[in-house]
Specification:
Oligomer: single chain
Distance between the termini: 26 Å
Structural class: alpha/beta
Number of helices: 13
Number of strands: 17
Mean pLDDT: 85
Helix content: 25-40%
Low-confidence stretches: 1-46
Radius of gyration: 19 Å
Length: 309
């Protein structure tokens, strides 16, 4: 991870307050829940690929609980101000797993870059973090069909003094850019020729860095950017309209989905059946709307389509 510009942003982030809740408290809640997931009474089970689609769904039904890997990113999966798990992905998981005969969902918080490793080392049962589907990730896990599609947006100083509307604008102006660890936006920025890229823990850290002038722009998903600017009531920063990234000269619209261990196709397929029913009835949008999603973020793209190189 590249070092941040200037002083360590964590020094300021730890004391930054958002509507009366210290980020230190939020992060402590995430850590505590992560530890709780580690010491859960749910025993780990082998998931060797025997070619029969796996037996995890039956095991989850017997235990009555499924462990969800979260990355602490709004609006996908995070710990709310009340210390409880929330986000679009956990909300979807609660409905689908209950219909699959698993009554309770349990959070396991970790860093975004550790989600796939944690899933495959049996720390939790699925990734519920709005993870983008990429061909590279498709070689490590299996994805359900996407629950949303997403473009990017920028957090910039009020008035957008550098007039940053595209990744090319960031490169052209030599603006100092920040984004999250492991985010797809890193590759989009490099593709556009951006040279100064810093990684920060999350969108709140990004907003603070922009407000304090340590970076010129923080890049994230459109809903994430929109939510953090709105919820903090920032008077020093603003979100831009949606931005379409490009790779190999082609526009990219990313999609996010639940991820499962590769042998567990039986569980993934059962999850997909319920998800598709929610899409057809409009229930999926109903569940996701409170977290900032709109009809524009709904998609019929399949995981199979997005896994193609």
């Amino acid at each position: 991870m590249a070092p941040p510009q200037g002083k360590n942003p964590a020094d300021d982030i730890r004391t930054h307050e958002v509507k009366g809740i210290r980020r230190r408290s939020l992060l402590a809640g995430v850590a505590a829940l992560g530890v709780a997931g580690t010491t859960s009474a749910c025993s780990r089970v082998a998931t060797a690929d025997t070619g029969d689609g796996g037996h995890l769904l039956e095991q989850l039904r017997a235990k009555g609980v499924v462990r969800l890997g979260l990355a602490g990113e709004q609006p996908y999966g995070y710990i709310g101000k009340d210390g409880k798990m929330t986000g679009s992905a956990p909300a979807i998981a609660e409905r689908i797993f209950k219909r699959l005969g698993v009554d309770r969902v349990e959070p396991f918080a970790t860093e975004f870059g550790s989600l796939i490793g944690g899933l495959n080392s049996l720390q939790f049962d699925c990734v519920a973090a709005g993870m983008y589907i990429t061909p590279e990730r498709c070689g490590q896990v299996i994805f359900a069909d996407p629950e949303y599609q997403m473009r990017d947006a920028f957090i910039v100083p009020k008035g957008n003094p550098k007039n940053l509307r595209t990744y090319k604008d960031i490169a052209r102006t030599g603006a100092r850019m920040a984004t999250g660890v492991g985010y797809a936006e890193i590759d989009y920025a490099k593709e556009a020729g951006v040279e100064h890229i810093t990684t920060l823990p999350d969108q709140l850290a990004g907003l603070l860095a922009v407000e304090q002038g340590r970076v010129d722009v923080f890049v994230g998903t459109a809903v994430t950017v929109r939510n953090v600017v709105k919820e903090t009531g920032s008077t020093k920063a603003e979100g831009t309209p949606e931005v379409t990234p490009y790779m190999d000269g082609k526009p990219v619209i990313d999609v996010g989905a639940f991820a499962f261990r590769s042998p567990e196709t039986h569980l993934r397929d059962a999850f997909n059946r319920e998800l598709r029913t929610m899409k057809r009835s409009g229930e999926l949008l109903e569940v996701m709307r409170p977290f900032g999603f709109t009809k524009d973020q709904m998609t019929t793209i399949t995981a199979e389509e997005k896994c193609k190189p």
